[in-house]
């Protein structure tokens, strides 16, 4: 299930927070040195905000599969390295991570629109991406988040914005998450940018 809106950094934060909550007994976020830096910044910020001793473990891209252990809660990887075009094997890494009990997050900012992506086919848990690059949305275009249908009703929205509320125009005092992927909405969508996209 997909949702379009907000920025890529917000979507990374949401996916990572939801994934960590799904594996509360684990504390390692595994990424690689080829990941886009802002993904790592968002992970560092979330770790600090949670204050529970989580660790961002960054390895070389060719060491990712060997680094997936039963300590890993989440893999946070960019499918295509923006610097050199190296492509991770999404199917293999997803399988290895899930076999080890980890949740997967794929950043598709440098692959969506440039090459075929089959999240459902490989069983990915979460994915995020921007639309301003290879999807031709232009500067300021919204980002997207994918939550596998099996997780959509239990993925917790770390950023509980008014538009992700079950009844946003009721203006209730307390937050109730929307149904499924709708709970991953945060603020008012950029309607003109979405129309252009």
From TrEMBL:
One GO term of the biological process aspect: NAD+ biosynthetic process
GO molecular function, one term: kynureninase activity
Residue ranges of every copy of the Aminotransferase class V domain listed in the record: 54-196
Keyword set, alphabetical order: Pyridoxal phosphate
Pfam families named among the record's database cross-references: Aminotran_5
GO annotation, cellular component aspect: cytoplasm
PANTHER family named in the record: KYNURENINASE
Protein name per UniProt: Kynureninase
């Amino acid at each position: 299930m997909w949702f379009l809106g907000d920025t890529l950094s917000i979507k990374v934060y949401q996916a990572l927070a939801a994934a960590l909550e799904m594996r509360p007994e684990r504390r390692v976020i595994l990424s690689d040195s080829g990941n886009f830096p802002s993904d790592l910044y968002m992970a560092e910020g979330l770790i600090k905000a949670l204050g529970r001793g989580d660790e961002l473990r960054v390895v070389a891209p060719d060491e990712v599969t060997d680094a997936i252990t039963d300590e890993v809660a989440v893999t946070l990887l960019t499918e295509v390295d923006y610097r050199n075009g190296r492509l991770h094997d999404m199917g293999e890494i997803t399988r290895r991570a899930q076999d080890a009990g980890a949740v997967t997050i794929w950043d598709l900012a440098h692959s969506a629109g440039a090459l075929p992506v089959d999240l459902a086919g490989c069983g990915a848990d979460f994915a995020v991406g921007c639309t301003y690059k290879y999807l031709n949305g232009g500067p300021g275009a919204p980002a997207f988040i994918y939550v596998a249908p099996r997780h959509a009703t239990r993925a917790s929205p770390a950023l509980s914005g008014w538009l992700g509320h079950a009844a946003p125009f009721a203006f209730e005092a307390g937050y109730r998450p929307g149904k499924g992927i709708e709970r991953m909405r945060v603020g008012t969508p950029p309607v003109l940018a979405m129309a252009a996209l």
